[in-house]
Amino acid sequence: MLILQHLCSLLPRSAMDLILEYADHYVLDGLWAKILPAPGADASWSSAANATAPTALSAWPREYWPRQVASVSAITLIGIHLLYFIFASFSYYTLFNHDMMRHPRFLKNQVRLEIMCSLQSFPGMTVLTLPWFMGEVRGYSKLYNGVDEYGWAYLAFSVVFYLLFTDYFIYWIHRLLHHPIVYKYIHKPHHKWLIPTPFASHAFHPVDGYLQSVPYHAFAFLFPCHRLTYLVLFVAVNFWSIFIHDSDMITGHPLENVINGPAHHTLHHLYFTCNYGQYFTWADRTGGSYKHPDKSFDPLNDVPKELKTE
To answer: 293: which DSSP letter?
Structure first.
């Protein structure tokens, strides 16, 4: 019953606020009480009136915005590190063809360089993204909790609309990042990886990573979206970004004319001026930048036969 009451208390919350609520409830209340205890209170756990679980008292209460900024920043940094290493490691060890590392254009110590570039970018991306997450926490987004507010039909529509909306605007942001005025300074670091591994997925300039994430965040402030659905989609698109960086050139599957998969994105890294889309090919087709995957483009063709493991 206590668990049910606690879940009910989260109903009006947004996606990041849901994460922050759980983090406060199970970890951060006690941590903040030890760092900044309330006047006259010790740092031990105590039962507050009408509380469903022990609550630690801090001079900085949950709704105090400097505490929220610090907590959300920490959650974001921890979350992106976990997501990156778990998903990228999974893709690297299960999907990525390690023969690609014998390609003549694969850099020396490239995996380590990709990881170092990513780790250096995470703090900057966190700072730039923080206003969006704080907007969620402070209640300015259009995320909602109950499916009955808009119905199941709208929920299904919002998933498709989210993918189309973000895909289209990421296409144009990505394409603009290839303009000579900005490419050299912002997007070129990501194209250092001509034969990328999954660890290259987040290896870019922090401004580059932030700009390509703006459509995801903006969607929650422009259109109603179910909170948990939005959270799942946000994690899923990050996984997709990792997945399409595995240099895979498997072609001939029935969806390759529709889905912008690893083969399409491999061509983007090799040829630079094609396949800017994130999930679908339609924006590239309408924008005249589509390049269809073909086995003749496979970078594995440039790996000497005697160096391949198969």
So the answer is: -
Cα 210 from Cα 190, distance rounded (Å)? 13
Smallest CA-to-CA distance from 207 within 182, 238, 234 is with 182
Per-residue pLDDT at 2: 37
End-to-end CA distance of the chain: 57
- Neighbour tally for 248: CB within 10 Å: 21
Burial class (CB in 10 A: 0-12, 13-18, 19+), 231: middle
Nearest one of 251, 262, 256, 245 to 294, comparing CA atoms = 251
Closest CA to 265 of 275, 253, 280: 275
Catalogue the long-range contacts made by 250-256 (C-beta closer than 8 Å, 24 or more residues apart). Answer: 251/293, 251/294, 251/295, 256/292, 256/293
Beta-ladder partners of 225? 143
Q: For 256-310, how does the pLDDT look when each residue is reduced to its tens digit (9 = 90+)?
A: 999 999 999 999 999 999 999 999 999 999 999 999 999 899 998 888 876 677 5
Rounded Cα gap, residues 251 and 300, in angstroms: 13
CA 191 to chain centre: 19
How many CA atoms within 13 Å lie on the side-chain side of 252? Answer: 4
Provide the whole-model pTM. 0.86
- Tens of pLDDT, residue by residue over 65-83, are 999 999 999 999 999 999 9
User: Cα(4)–Cα(20) distance, rounded to whole angstroms?
Assistant: 18
Residues 1-19: tens digit of each pLDDT = 334 334 333 334 457 888 8
Three-class DSSP category at 12: coil
Residue written as tokens 């031990």? 44
* CB atoms inside a 10 Å sphere around CB 11: 11
